[in-house]
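Workshop exercise sheet. Pairs work together: one partner reads the sequence aloud, the other fills in the structure field after running the prediction. Swap roles for the next sheet.
Pair: D.N. / O.F.
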Amino acid sequence: MIRERTKSFDCVTMKTEVQAKLRQDFAGLSDEEERTRITQELESSDDVVARKWRRLREEHPAAR
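Structure field:
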C-alpha cells in the first residue's frame, strides 16, 4: 500500500517565486549590467555559493 505524504516544502513554488523576484530585481538592466550586478554580489557575499565561485575563479584565472 502506498501512503500519501504531505509536503512541507514545494520546490516548484519556490523556483517560481525566486524567478519572479529576479525578474523584478533585474528589470530594465542590460545583459552587461545584469552580469556586473551578479558579479558584484558574488564578490561581496559570504554565501556558500559565492565562496565557491571565488575559489573557482582563483583556481582557474583563464576562465574569467
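Discussion prompt: Helices lie at 11-25, 31-44, 48-59. What would you look at next?
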